[in-house]
């Protein structure tokens, strides 16, 4: 090197620099701007950048934070934790002041700052869907903010593909918030027919939440299936017992069919008021309604068949680890218990004890019996009779009237509710465990309330004895909730 001239040495140094740039570019070139961290698609860029995307380690969104904010000043000093804390406090302040626009932009800045901090996604998704939505009066506005909370969680899943619990939480929000809240009557309808006419003028669903226009519980099941697949294929869930975690898809199907039963009365009323039925004779109208009832019964039975199969054949046959890593499954015969005991290297009493403990813990037999009971024609008939009573009530068919012989006859609504309560009494005698199920308790008590309301309208005294009277007395503490549910079901506007 000492024998080289100054010019030659400069050329050698330049060549070395170019040579060293090759591996640097190969390893460190950034990803293309259209690729989001967390995606599993092909990524252009350096090897290290591709690995960051593959393993959800990218932080390419840091530059999207407001450069004039105090949080950005901390980011430039390497203090991302304190910066995120400042943004959290600002978000809470904006929420208290009901400054929803700034709240949303601040939350967006938080996730750009810490896209892989899972607790941020969980907390802010819940906050938007459950807390912020409650601040609005109009149901359509509440629905919008629930959607924002769930969309926030969905974005979290794209940035954190290996975090199984986030996928589960999306499904949980889809089912619980849209299906169990006070506004569920409207939320479930909005889920397939979005009220935002400007963005969805054709009456379609929001494509981000519901691209196929399905029921909210079925979309929830899709997300639960994804989370179960991830749990089984290398990304186990943390912070939740597996035997509880894996039941979510089956329970979503249970909720879906139960919601179909709840929607029956509204659907029948809507069909009866459709333009194509207004000019029909009474006989033709009744024939159409009979066809609708048969169709509903078939769908109901089919739905419960699917739910029963999902619970017993899929969830029931999953293999779980119990105490001392003893493997077991919930839907287990005597021969399978013996085979599993031999496979686990334990005695049959030990295997049976582990199995029975977990069967009781998840209440497996109760839900199995419930799905089996719901397929019984008596159960279907009891649900339908009560729902038909609600249809008659909503039509105003609550007045007693004289027949052709001049004899005063009970109203159609009273007759249907009485029929439903009689069948429910038979059902509880046949399946006594159902008397402890909240859904049955609420349905029966609400039917009794409807029946009494119709009788009071016709100035009839309540009989000294009537079906399920003792059942009503046992659950007298629920009466305020039943009256509230009655008001919600008959609320005409929102």
Structure explained in plain terms:
- The chain has 494 residues and is mainly alpha-helical.
- Among the domains are: 6-53, no CATH class; 376-489.
- It contains 21 helices and 4 strands.
- The strands form 2 sheets. Strands 1-2 form a two-stranded antiparallel ribbon. Strands 3-4 form a two-stranded antiparallel ribbon.
- The termini are far apart.
- Mean pLDDT is 83; it is low at 33-43, 60-68 and 72-78.
Shape: globular
Low-pLDDT sequence parts: 33-43, 60-68, 72-78
How many angstroms does the end-to-end distance come to?
86 Å
Radius of gyration: 30 Å
What sequence of helices (H) and strands (E) makes up the elements? Answer: HHHHHHHHHHHHHEEHHHHEEHHHH
Helix share of residues?
A: 55-70%
Q: Sketch the major β-sheet.
A: 2 strands, antiparallel
Strand fraction band?
A: under 5%
Q: What's the total count of β strands? A: 4
Number of helices: 21
Order of strands, main sheet, comes to: 1-2
pLDDT average, as an integer?
83
Which structural class do you get from the secondary structure elements? Answer: mainly alpha
List the main descriptive attributes of the protein structure presented here.
single chain; 494 residues; mainly alpha; two-stranded antiparallel sheet; two-stranded antiparallel ribbon; 4 strands; 65% helix
Concise account of the structure shown:
The chain is an all-alpha fold and 494 residues long. Helices cover 65% and strands 2% of the residues.
């Amino acid at each position: 090197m000492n024998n080289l001239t100054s010019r030659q040495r400069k050329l050698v140094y330049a060549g070395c620099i170019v040579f060293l740039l090759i591996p640097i570019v190969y390893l460190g070139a950034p990803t293309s701007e259209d690729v989001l961290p967390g995606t599993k698609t092909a990524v252009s860029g350096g090897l290290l950048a591709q690995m960051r995307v593959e393993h959800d380690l990218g932080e390419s969104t840091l530059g999207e934070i407001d450069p004039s904010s105090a949080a950005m000043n901390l980011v430039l000093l390497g203090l991302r934790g304190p910066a995120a804390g400042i943004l959290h406090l600002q978000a809470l302040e904006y929420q208290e002041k009901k400054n929803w626009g700034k709240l949303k932009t601040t939350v967006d800045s938080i996730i750009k700052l810490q896209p892989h901090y899972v607790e941020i996604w969980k907390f802010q998704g819940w906050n938007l869907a459950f807390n912020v939505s409650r601040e609005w009066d109009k149901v359509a506005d509440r629905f919008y903010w629930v959607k924002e909370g769930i969309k926030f969680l969905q974005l979290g899943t794209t940035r954190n593909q290996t975090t199984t619990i986030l996928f589960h939480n999306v499904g949980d929000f889809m089912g619980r918030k849209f299906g169990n809240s006070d506004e569920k009557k409207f939320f479930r309808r909005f889920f397939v027919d979005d009220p935002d006419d400007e963005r969805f003028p054709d009456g379609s669903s929001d494509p981000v939440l519901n691209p196929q226009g399905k029921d909210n519980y079925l979309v929830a099941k899709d997300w639960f299936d994804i989370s179960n697949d991830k749990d089984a294929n290398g990304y186990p869930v943390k912070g939740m017992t597996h035997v509880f975690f894996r039941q979510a898809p089956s329970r979503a199907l249970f909720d879906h069919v139960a919601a179909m039963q709840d929607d029956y009365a509204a659907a029948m009323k809507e069909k009866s008021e459709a333009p194509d039925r207004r000019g029909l004779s009474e006989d033709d109208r009744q024939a159409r309604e009979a066809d609708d009832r048969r169709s509903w019964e078939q769908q109901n039975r089919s739905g419960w068949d699917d739910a029963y199969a999902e619970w017993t054949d899929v969830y029931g046959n999953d293999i779980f680890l119990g105490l001392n890593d003893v493997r077991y499954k919930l839907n287990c015969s005597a021969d399978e218990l013996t085979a599993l005991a031999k496979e686990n290297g334990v005695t049959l009493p030990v295997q049976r004890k582990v199995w029975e403990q977990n069967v009781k813990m998840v209440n497996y037999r109760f839900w199995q019996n419930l799905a089996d009971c719901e397929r019984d024609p008596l159960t279907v008939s009891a649900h339908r009779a009560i729902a038909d009573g609600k249809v008659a009530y909503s039509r105003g068919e609550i007045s007693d009237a004289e027949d052709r012989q001049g004899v005063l006859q009970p109203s159609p609504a009273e007759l249907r509710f009485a029929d439903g309560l009689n069948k429910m009494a038979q059902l509880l005698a046949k399946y006594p465990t159902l008397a402890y199920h909240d859904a049955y308790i609420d349905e029966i008590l609400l039917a009794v309330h409807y029946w009494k309301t119709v009788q009071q309208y016709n100035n009839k005294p309540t009989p000294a004895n009537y079906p399920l009277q003792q059942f009503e007395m046992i659950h007298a503490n629920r009466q305020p909730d039943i009256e509230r549910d009655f008001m919600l079901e008959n609320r005409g506007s929102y």
